[in-house]
Amino acid sequence: MKIQRIVRTLPSHAYKGNMISALVIALISILPLYAQASPTHLMAQGWQAFQQGAFVRAASHWEQAAQSYAKLGDARAQSLALTQLSQAYQALGHDNKALVSLVQSLDLAQQAKDQKQVVSVLGYIGNVHIALGNLQDASTWLQRGLKAAEALEDKMLMANITHYLGNLSSAQKKPADALHHYR
């Protein structure tokens, strides 16, 4: 090993012992840095747990990923992690926690100037408001999201928001409007 070759070249036994101790202490002190999963790995673990229905574990992974991205100063990635975290919270029935996570995600997406993420989050916020029974708030967020998606001319985002508007119409007991949105 390289360390052993270096130690063998040192002049005295006492110095060798101190050097080895110093190297061991240095290695032990940096080991936790390597033991931590990368935020990308945490995101993947969260997705895998979510797909398996392990929503608490998914939330834990995505929360850790969001914290890691925050430490790295990566607002866009942190926004994505918080959006995923909100999905786990919603699956657990914690709609208010989901809403808090999404509001943070929206702010970060705006800071990162990621307009597609902004539109996605607007849609998710609208959907959470539907789940909470705040139908007027849901309508406001979804209309805002639809306008932003149209401005981007992004058909997939427009389709997603329109689907959420169908959910809203269903919650409002307006089946004809829901059908219109779902088509």
Explain the layout of strands and helices.
Blueprint: H1 2-8, H2 13-35, H3 39-51, H4 55-72, H5 75-91, H6 95-111, H7 115-132, H8 135-152, H9 155-171, H10 175-182
Helix pairs in contact: 3-4, 4-5, 5-6, 5-7, 6-7, 7-8, 7-9, 8-9, 9-10
Largest sheet: none
Q: According to CATH, what is the class of the largest domain?
A: Mainly Alpha
CATH hierarchy: architecture of the largest domain: Alpha Horseshoe
Domain module tally: 2
Q: What is the beta-strand fraction?
A: under 5%
Cα distance spanning the termini:
67 Å
Report what the structure shows.
With 183 residues, the protein is mainly alpha-helical. It has 2 domains: 1-35; 38-182, Tetratricopeptide repeat domain (Serine Threonine Protein Phosphatase 5, Tetratricopeptide repeat). It is built from 10 helices and no strands. The chain has helices at residues 2-8, 13-35, 39-51, 55-72, 75-91, 95-111, 115-132, 135-152, 155-171, 175-182. The longest helix has 23 residues, at 13-35. The radius of gyration is 24 Å and the shape is elongated. Residues 1-7, 9-16 and 30-35 have low confidence and may be disordered.
Q: In short, what is this structure?
A:
The protein is mostly helical. It is built from 10 helices and no strands.
Features:
single chain; 183 residues; mainly alpha; Serine Threonine Protein Phosphatase 5, Tetratricopeptide repeat; 2 domains; disordered N terminus
